[in-house]
Amino acid sequence: MGTAERREAPGDGMAASLVEDRVPEAPDPDIPAARNRVERDEEREQGYRPLWVEEPAKRRRLPDPVRTAAVRAGLIIAVTLLLAMVAFLCTMAGSWPAFPMVISAVVSTVVATWSALDVWVTRQVWNQRNGVVSTPSSTARALRREKRRTRRQAKATERAQARIRRRGGTGQLSHP
């Protein structure tokens, strides 16, 4: 019991359950530290202990399209497992819906495989279009560079046309 304090129970000498955990609580940034300690002491006297302590996420959240595909795939796989179980039980019982259930379970397995592949492909496409900029040969970086180049050319062309219009058409070889 490394994180708990142990003490003897009165009378029988056996160890009692945990009294206090020694995990430090994260201070609330909105409450001054002195008030935080006072509140914690009051809560401990009342026997209150929080169920969990918030920790920062270790990984970033999935992009929206990837998360949507993953949720869809999870639901499809859950329904597939349910269908397969019902098909198995119908087959074992020898009931009449056994054949249609087996056919639907096979089709559902194909759809579940397709949805799992969809998650992988969506993730790869997202990374190629919007991420993985740290790699020098990144496609996303090349695409952004190309877009920047075309925007600059479009702005330069627009400025040149505006300059020609301001001059009243002088300097043009021919008029439309």
Quickly describe the structure.
The chain has helices spanning 33-46, 64-93, 98-130, 139-167. With 176 residues, it is mostly helical.
SSE layout:
Layout: H1 33-46, H2 64-93, H3 98-130, H4 139-167
What features would you describe in this structure?
Helix 2 (64-93) runs antiparallel to helix 3. The chain has four helices and no strands. The chain has 176 residues and is mainly α.
Number of extended strands:
0
Strand content: under 5%
DSSP helix count?
Answer: 4
Largest sheet: none
Radius of gyration: 33 Å
Span of the ends, CA to CA: 89 Å
Structural class: mainly alpha
Mean pLDDT: 78
Poorly predicted runs of 5 or more residues: 1-9, 12-23
This entry's quaternary arrangement is: single chain
Principal-axis shape: flat
Listing every helix as H and every strand as E from the N terminus to the C terminus, the arrangement reads: HHHH
Helix content: 55-70%
What structural keywords apply?
176 residues, mainly alpha, 4 helices, flat, disordered N terminus
